[in-house]
Fold this protein.
Amino acid sequence: MPEIQAYMFICKYYYKWVPENKKTKHSNFNKQLIHKNVNSLISKKQIPLEKKAMYRFFIVLISVIMSSTSANAQTEHQKYTLVQKFPGFEVRHYPPALLATVHTQANSYRELSSPGFRTLAGYIFGDNSEGKKIAMTAPVHMDIGQEGSSMSFVMPSEYSFEDLPEPANREITLQESSPEYVAALTFGGYANDEKIKEETEKLMKYLRDNQIQSVGNFRFLGYNSPYRFWNRRNEIIVRINWE
């Protein structure tokens, strides 16, 4: 059976046998079900034994796809209003949002991303005054500077400031952001310091060309987990003077 037929075969079993309400919420169940059916066919010699490794690969691949798609579909995104689109970027208005923020001495994406994420993840996973778990949202905000940086998680919209538990880690602060107009440039792939610098310079040029004045630092927004391999979304934003 050619590779493309193998892929379609496994997909067919997924869509035929997995109930709709299981497809997005229980990716482990999906994997086990597909695995069971493929093993059954191998044992009946409907799939040649020498092709077994290839089928295993497709099972893992589809499981990763389902997991990343499910997580992205269920993640709440920070709300904003699109004000105007320009070639290469757009202007948005962000209303106030509740943020959990950690400040560090890092001065690069590489130094900030993993330690900052682990610190804030601890807070939403229950390292707080109530032992409460808080849903992850997107995007993750990073303000990277030469004299120090910060990372922020946006709190789910269901929470008010009074509802949020106090962080057990004193490095984390809770705050409400100010409403702001920003220019936003979107790019794909995996982010790194070189890519962030390149995309920031693009946005700077777009703003100059359109005579729009920026205010403060250019910031990075990351929307996806490391396990989402394609259709990734990253952004550079900066506050602007807009009337």
